Amino acid sequence: MSDDVEIVIAIIRREKVGDVKAALSDVGAPSLTVTEVSGRGSQPAKTEQWRGEEYTVDLHEKAKIECVVADVPTADVVEAIRSAAHTGEKGDGKVFVLPVSHAVQIRTGKEGADAV
Amino acid sequence: MPVEPAVANGINTVWALVVAFLIFFMQPGFALLEAGQVRAKNAGNVLMKNMTDWTLGVLAYFLVGFGLSVIVAALTSTSPLDIVGAFAYVSDSGQWIGWLVGAVFAMTAATIVSGAVAERMSFGAYVFVAAAMTAVIYPVATGLTWDGGLLAAGDNPGFVADLLGVGYLDFAGATVVHMLGGLAGLTGAYMVGPRKGRFDEHGNSQPIPGHSMLLAVLGTLILAFGWYGFNVGTSAIFNSSNELLSAQLGRVALNTTLGMGAGALAAMAMSARRQGKPDPLWTANGLLAGLVAVTGAVPHVTWWGGLILGGLGGAIVLPTYRFVVDELGIDDVCGVFPVHGAAGALGTILIPVFGVQGGSWSFLGVDQLVMQIVGVAIIGLWAVVGTGVAFAVADALFGLRVSEAEEELGLDEGEHGVSVYPEFTGDGAPEPTVTADGGRPSPPTEDDGGRVETDGGVPTGVPMGEPIPDRDSTDGGRPSPPTDAVVDCGTTPPEIDDDGGEADE
Q: Measured in whole angstroms, how far is the alpha carbon of residue B67 from the centre of its chain?
């Protein structure tokens, strides 16, 4: 087992969080952190109205999923998120993979891949 | 068939108390309605203004207002002036329930104003205006009408009523309470000026969405509940001959309900026509406007008259709001003039057209119609003049507006030092002060321009102590649509230096 620890960061549609959780569980990487975020990508700005007057919102509400990966192949995790969060419309989001230089489990003090 | 006088009196007394409590319950309705229509950073200030209306108002109305009303009535009619007698209620326990019923009406008028001037009026100036509303402005209106003054018929009629030969009809205060409050709010909103960003450099309206439609609609329905006290409660249960007023009570209850329903549906239809989709906030506003429109009319009109009046009140809300904003350039945040002012005036003027006599429809006469128009004009004129003077004095004493920097920061923080929706709260840790990140308080900084507001107060992502760069350079340089600046609210860093220690990092 390699000692490589990577973090997969995905920005997805909020309504896809449940599907992504299930998909991650299916590939054996159930641990994750979910944050409600707002951001702008390729999804076009949306128009809302207040008392009939329109205003533009170009920061869309998304969910950010962070998933630290050690045992499971990172590619499986990325593919699980991608297929579960995919609709084909603009605004599906993105997945980023970054190296993690160190990890410590607070309860046990285990380090590196064992901590994950 | 009459009942025993003691029984009739007892039931009427219990009814008056229940009604007072119901109308008091309109206060949380107004608080929720107004808080929902402002941004999260100003919700606490709106709540403070609503609480002040009531708490300061009851004192002012007890010590000054209730007696002043009787004096105004005597001065504008053929009734003899008795200043000592006007204030006899202060030590007459037999009048105190009547005073309480008067007080809940007075505070309803006062609390309407806060919705119009929200999000930029200084708290000190508002407190002064609230006192003026409950001590003078509202009592003068009741003096001219319900207490037997200028517009009232009777043995000692008011001067105008004497001239026209009829008395002014406004049963529960469509004009005496609501139009007065709506016009006071409009006048105040004009004098305070629009919120920063409400109009662009060309004077075009830019929306500033409120933070909770949920609160606004819940507040509306609570108001509607209290309104049954307002309208139905203005009728006694037994008349002076100790006979049950079942016909009047039924008419008042039905017309209140039909007016409410028709007002909401008319506003819903109007919003769907003008905006393409039925809008919850307009529907809620229309529900209230329907209630306002029938408030003066409920015992005087046919059931279908109540329905039509309510529908008209609801239908004019949206066009009136657009007129106030687009043509007059007045930033009436919660639309209090369309809802309380316009609907109250229209519904009260049209009472004679839908009049009922002996249980069936009957035009109440040209004299009555003229009286309704004259009465609306006089009360309206007094509302504008009285409020104008009160706001001018408040401006001289306190200044009407908060600073531009405080307006951006939010009045909750600026006026009261609170956050209505804190993102992080204390967890019982030993540190007495918990900062946003749960750690130790940071030392005060001179330039605290980096404070981040979740509701769009300032752009995010700026490190502490650094000036906030121009918006276009923080979002990748792509020019944003002009309205976006309103949602994100401003590009200038607030220059607040008295909120030391409010660190986010």
A: 23
Residue A48 pLDDT exceeds 70: yes
Q: Structure tokens of B354?
A: 């839908």
The pLDDT of B53-71, averaged and rounded, is 97
Asked if the ipTM is above 0.90, the reply is no
d(CA B40, CA B43): 5
Instruction: Of B492, B414, B499, give the one whose Cα is nearest residue B459.
Output: B492
Of B207, B475, B481, the CB nearest to A53: B207
pTM (2 d.p.)? 0.82
Looking at every residue in chain B, the average pLDDT score rounds to 88
Residue B342 covered by a domain? no
Domain count, chain A: 1
Q: Return d(Cα B293, Cα B280) in angstroms, integer.
A: 20
Q: Are residues B376 and B504 in the same domain?
A: no
Q: Can you tell me the distance from the alpha carbon of B454 to that of B474, in angstroms, rounded to the nearest whole number?
A: 17
Query: CA torsion sign, B461 to B463 to B468 to B474?
Result: negative
In terms of residue numbers, what domain contains B489? 424-505
pLDDT score, position B449: 47
User: Which residues in chain B have Cβ-Cβ distances shorter than 8 Å to A50?
Assistant: 207-210, 281
| SS3 letters across B234-275 | HCCCECCCCCECHHHHHHHHHHHHHHHHHHHHHHHHHHHHHH
The pLDDT assigned to B429 comes to: 58
CB contact under 8 Å between A40 and B475, yes or no, is yes
pLDDT value, residue A74: 95
